[in-house]
């Protein structure tokens, strides 16, 4: 049986998970830790109340003491990735397994940047098919010997999770390849660029849940940091955050993040964005990738980022989610240890002899549709044709690593590359000379580094790549060992040249490289010629510049920097109380002021019933009617509720809005006793029978002649925007425009208007989809203060205050209400109910979730009101006198009025 807490996430897979077997059944799955578990300490009661009902899992997670007694708990980093940094091999006799570290794994090398007192534990899958009967033993061996906790996924699930969704859908999409197939995925393997398959997405979610369950087995949420890696596990943060609200959680994306125009084609686009935002820190290799992510958050979730003191953050329900931009580096020590091997020196000597008198260009790529290998070959072919001097002298060695995915597109690319190689060698080849040396097999590290050492230039023409560390490795190999260890024949100035695609992650950090657009094969060919024709001194200077960067920005520097920023981000979150809300991938943690609470109907009704002089201030848009509503007029129900509140002699009710007085007067024409404060309080009217008052000096609106042309300029340039002209203010609305562009235009307009109106007595403010210019000294806060002061002067000092709003302009009102007691404009011990709409950081002490709850609460107050009979009769008479009812009879409650 699956956990009740997570069935809403797994409902995404309804009808499919059953075929895969139980995800968290009553029996312990093979590979989980049975009798021997990782030491765990739980110190906060209640955080594990939603665990599965199974006895073994309850025993593992609900205890408050470690299985292994310990007087101190040290911090630990749990690194979660698709694959463990371990190589598994069957013993020659077929009995048992032999494990060793994977020296080429980036995850293994990040340990060098982890503090010495911090333990590192890895969680991921093994690149081996371990029978179910052996999974317990393998798990314990890896935990004891390697501090690795393996996740065993059923083969069918892994294939649909990794091959179908990760490599078949996410990988192409994140590399800017839009889906182009409208039919179902082929049965003979994944096809890059195919349409979204709901079953594969469900498998992806379930696979992420398996990783989550392994984390739960080993985690100590009070002391551990969790660092999740790459696009395979983007659903994992929501699983973890739902179970452990205060978990210190980071995520790093090693692939590109596409522009919003590409990403928006993903059917589960919001789910993935929201699950990533459940992390404390999100890392990207380049600013371009981070910028695309931030743009998607803005366009699809309406969340804007802020930059403060060098740090970029997103305010997500009171939590600041940090954005980290840091390209990963290489492990200098590992490369230098290989360079010291005797086999390395022998291979270098062999290659120097093989290519004596030749200029070697090197390409080293995975067999992948995005690596641009054939574009590289075409550029090299064009160079040989346009610069015949290199015929017989220049050699391109292209090493192709085995493909990580599979499918027809891989076979097509391989065939295309082989055809190009054969054509070029046939046209330009000579006895003893082949311009293309194509190596399509797994090559040992020693051989790869030997080719790096002898190559004059490395060429990377990927059309899109997350990072690509090949240029870094090449620079280190060309530098060689320190002078004291170098062989005599490699002493002297070091030099190297790079021709790299501008579409790879390492390109921005290699300022001395020649950057190319790989699609422009003619320009790439000229860059190849420029690189190998460059003077030795220029090659040396570029090499020195690159080596300084690569040697100081290694993998340890990268991991150390990420962990430090993760610690900083988490410290900020631990200062605030938080709780989780939402279902499925809409789950999020809300961090708010400790005194911020949901408004209790019982509490406000009790205070309402005890009070004798009440002040009620209500915003309109976003408070009484939804912002997105097309029909902005109040409903009959709302009008009835407001009239009932107004008819209670103990109540003063005001609508306080930024709307014009004509608009508000029209909408509430049937509420004669309602007070209205229009244009943020510049115009005031206590009842319908009274004249409008001006709360400030008569406005000098000469500034409008300066502001309006500026706003017209931006309106014409921003499709979907418009200007609202009020008596004392101008408002530029852009809710119907493209939000990315409109937001940029709004910031520019704000700055422009402030410069133009610097000597005018006006205020320029931005709000929710608006930029407003209004007179100084006008705010909703001053309205509330004036109303309360007026009540006191009339001998009706308020002993109950309710103020409800939803945006920035209402914050002034909340602040004024909070200070009312100090200024003695309300009675002592007056209950002050400042309430915002929606759970968000606010100066209000209370919140209601939406406009529906606001109207429901007002309805409850109306039912508890006691309308004055005299006012009721006068109100009915006024209403009737305005109607042409002829001989009809109109029934108002228990009062019947006959038509004349």
Polypeptide structure, described:
Residues 1-8, 10-73, 487-491 and 876-900 have low confidence and may be disordered. Helix 5 (155-174) packs across helix 6 (198-218), helix 12 crosses helix 15 (445-454) and helix 13 (373-386) packs across helix 17 (521-533). A nine-stranded mixed β-sheet has the order 5-4-1-6-7-8-11-10-9. The chain has a nine-stranded mixed β-sheet with strand order 20-32-31-30-21-22-23-24-25, sandwiched between helices. Helix 26 links the parallel strand 30 (800-805) and strand 31 (832-837). The radius of gyration is 34 Å and the shape is elongated. The chain contains 28 helices and 34 strands. By secondary structure, the chain is an alpha/beta fold.
Low-confidence stretches: 1-8, 10-73, 487-491, 876-900
Mean pLDDT: 83
Q: How much strand?
A: 15-25%
Terminal Cα span: 72 Å
Number of E strands? 34
Set out the fold topology:
Layout: H1 7-10, H2 55-61, E1 76-83, E2 86-90, E3 97-101, H3 106-109, E4 119-125, H4 135-146, E5 148-150, H5 155-174, H6 198-218, E6 224-229, H7 236-243, E7 248-252, H8 260-263, H9 269-276, E8 281-284, H10 287-301, E9 305-308, E10 311-316, E11 319-325, H11 332-339, H12 342-354, E12 359-366, H13 373-386, E13 394-401, H14 408-428, E14 436-440, H15 445-454, E15 457-460, H16 470-479, E16 498-501, E17 514-516, H17 521-533, H18 536-552, H19 555-573, E18 578-581, E19 588-591, E20 597-598, H20 601-610, E21 614-618, H21 636-646, E22 651-656, H22 661-667, E23 675-678, E24 683-685, E25 693-694, H23 704-717, E26 722-725, E27 730-733, H24 739-756, E28 762-767, E29 770-775, H25 780-793, E30 800-805, H26 808-819, E31 832-837, E32 846-848, H27 851-863, H28 869-881, E33 889-892, E34 895-898
Parallel strand pairs: 1-4, 1-6, 4-5, 6-7, 7-8, 8-11, 12-13, 12-15, 13-14, 15-16, 16-17, 20-32, 21-22, 21-30, 22-23, 30-31, 31-32
Antiparallel strand pairs: 2-3, 9-10, 10-11, 18-19, 23-24, 24-25, 26-27, 27-29, 28-29, 33-34
Helix pairs in contact: 5-6, 12-15, 13-14, 13-17, 15-16, 16-18, 21-27, 23-24, 25-26
